[in-house]
Amino acid sequence: MYYKTLKKLLFKFDPETAHGLAEFALKNGGNFDFILNLISKNFSYQNEALKQNIFGLNFANPLGIGGGFDKNATMIKALNALGFGYLEYGTFTPKPQPGNAKPRLFRLIEEESLQNAMGFNNEGWEAIAKRVEKNYPFKAPLIANIGKNKITPNEDALKDYEILTQKFKDLCDIFVINISSPNTPNLRDLQDEKFIKDIFETMKNITTKPILLKIAPDMSFGKAIDLCSCAVQNGTNGVIINNTSIDYSLTPNAKDFGGLSGKLITKKSKELFKAVANELFGETILISCGGIDNGKEAYERIKMGASLVEIYTSFIFKGPSVIKNINSQIANLLEKDGFTNITQAIGVNAKKAI
């Protein structure tokens, strides 16, 4: 009830201003232990059945916040207190950059979706590194989501990822390679097998931390499977399926730029995840993202093969209670199916597991 009132107020502001207000509150709230304890008491959900160890890391639950929400790693403590099992900060780039021209973030209220053309706006690696140093190592796994600068041509993109891997190899538990955002010109062109081979070879020579690839939802099943298979062959530790969509046929209310997220891409994301999971489940860790806003949807993705799931847009539309609701619903569904731990449910419906 409280968030419904707060949302009415926040939604009177343009989306980016509202995000800034939320960031201000979460950033400053994270400076006080009594506030963090109060947040945790009211919003987090603990259940032994949700705990698992992946990559040698302990995850209290399978639900994480997707890249793009905490671009500059300002909200780590508060987001953890709200109950996320892991946190992804970024996408950030070597050099600070302002991102694309405003307005660049739009609400599609009836569809409970967003459209963003942010363009990797962030403070750059130096400012973010100083901030993360104060929190790392952290109680929950931290994922660094890294991208290239807009001014960096694709032929030099590898250098940007190399720089960030070097600078953050001791400031995160996991890396995510973002080459799937639609908001940096030509970035998705890097979703080819040659670049995949080169980037994993480069990063693996620098760090032993797990490296994940995040893919776009707008490619064919066959291309997605081939790309993910190539990443597996070249050393990826996991794949996140998927980023935002540029399929503007999903709604007549879409702009002709930027990426769609939220309920509009639920079906598209689920179908792509299922296709990839049916081929690659058991060969790498799979993470599902896109249109997840309740425990039933999250649990379906888990049974399809997802070890972890991520949300973003549903956090905006449903508020912090969505975290507790999703995790508690997953726990109830596990119990209903006779599972004592989430690991028993992962992939039970994947074709390779049947």
Textual characterization of the structure:
The chain has a single domain, classed as Aldolase class I (TIM Barrel, Alpha-Beta Barrel). With 354 residues, the chain is of the alpha/beta class. It has an 8-stranded parallel beta barrel with strand order 3-4-7-8-9-10-12-13, surrounded by 6 helices. Strands 5-6-11 form a 3-stranded antiparallel β-sheet. α6 packs parallel to α7, α7 runs parallel beside α8 and α10 packs across α12. The model has no long low-confidence stretch (mean pLDDT 97). α7 links the parallel β8 and β9.
Brief summary:
The chain is an alpha/beta fold. It is 38% helix and 17% strand.
Per-chain topology:
Elements: H1 2-10, H2 15-29, H3 33-43, E1 52-54, E2 57-59, E3 63-70, H4 76-81, E4 86-92, E5 105-108, E6 113-116, H5 125-133, E7 142-146, H6 157-168, E8 174-178, H7 193-204, E9 211-215, H8 221-233, E10 238-241, E11 259-262, H9 266-280, E12 285-289, H10 295-304, E13 308-311, H11 313-318, H12 321-336
Parallel strand pairs: 3-4, 3-13, 4-7, 7-8, 8-9, 9-10, 10-12, 12-13
Antiparallel strand pairs: 1-2, 5-6, 6-11
Descriptors:
single chain; 354 residues; alpha/beta; TIM Barrel; 3-stranded antiparallel β-sheet; 12 helices; 13 strands; 38% helix
**How can the largest sheet be summarized?**
8 strands, parallel, barrel
Strand order of the largest sheet: 3-4-7-8-9-10-12-13
Cα(first) to Cα(last) distance is 43 Å
Looking at this structure, what is the CATH superfamily? Aldolase class I
Roughly what fraction of the amino acids lie in strands? 15-25%
Broad shape: globular
Continuous helix count: 12
Structural class designation: alpha/beta
Helix content range: 25-40%
Given this structure, which CATH class is correct?
Alpha Beta
Uncertain stretches of 5 or more adjacent residues: none
Query: What is the gyration radius calculated from CA atoms?
Result: 19 Å
Architecture, CATH level 2?
Answer: Alpha-Beta Barrel
Q: How many structural units, i.e. domains?
A: 1
Q: What is the total tally of β strands?
A: 13
Reading the helices and strands in chain order gives: HHHEEEHEEEHEHEHEHEEHEHEHH
CATH overall fold name: TIM Barrel
- Mean pLDDT across residues: 97
